[in-house]
Amino acid sequence: MFFDANMSPHLALAIGELCKAAEDDVDVVTHLFDRYPRSAKDLDWIPDLALTGSWVVVSIDRFKKQHNAEREALRKGGHLVFVLEKEWSGRPFWEKAEHLIGWWPQIMKAARLQSSGMLSVPFSRRTGAKFKQLSL
Question: Per residue in 115-131, pLDDT tens?
Answer without folding.
Answer: 999 999 999 988 889 99
